[in-house]
Design brief:
Order of helices and strands: HHHEEEEHEEEE
Number of helices: 4
Largest sheet: 8 strands, antiparallel
Low-confidence stretches: 1-16
Shape: globular
């Protein structure tokens, strides 16, 4: 096979594959009350928020407003509403008690079997999708253990 043909086929296979494609066919999981470190999706970033969470370190992103908060928490916002919460610290946990370092088996026992799988940046990800609240929670894993947790609005790439 010619190199050009091989590259073209690879581009065709990866074209159109997005995060959203991963959860299209999965059964819904209720994430409506999900929080991480007292943060929730659609929470407004205003003066009260800044009083509660302190200084927001701007992480300079071209697409959304990303801020680093306390110990291993990053948020993204659009129009002053939280659209993504990224957790990489063992200090906090999800509403259902999953935290960094838990195993995939722990995760499935608590969140159930209605998950999707995907890969990004060479990392295996297990995610749950709430069709009603248009939210996902994704657990990034390495060696069968959770290394990062992301709670997102479903439109966030």
């Amino acid at each position: 096979m010619k190199p050009f043909t091989l590259i073209f086929l690879l581009l065709l296979l990866t074209a159109g594959c997005s995060r959203q494609d991963s959860f299209k066919g999965v059964k819904s999981t209720d994430l409506s009350g999900e929080t991480i470190a007292d943060l929730r999706l659609d929470q407004i970033i205003d003066g009260d928020f800044r009083k509660d969470f302190g200084e927001l370190k701007d992480l300079q992103n071209a697409v959304y407003d990303y801020y680093e908060l306390k110990n291993g928490i990053v948020i993204a916002s659009k129009n002053n509403k939280i659209i993504r919460i990224i957790l990489s610290s063992e200090e906090y946990e999800t509403m259902k008690g999953i935290k960094i370092g838990n195993t995939i088996n722990d995760l499935k026992k608590i969140y159930g079997e209605n998950f999707y799988k995907r890969e990004e940046q060479g990392t295996k990800i297990i995610g749950y999708y709430d069709k009603k609240s248009n939210a996902t929670i994704e657990f990034w894993t390495y060696d069968e253990k959770i290394t990062q947790i992301r709670l997102d609005k479903d439109f966030v790439e």
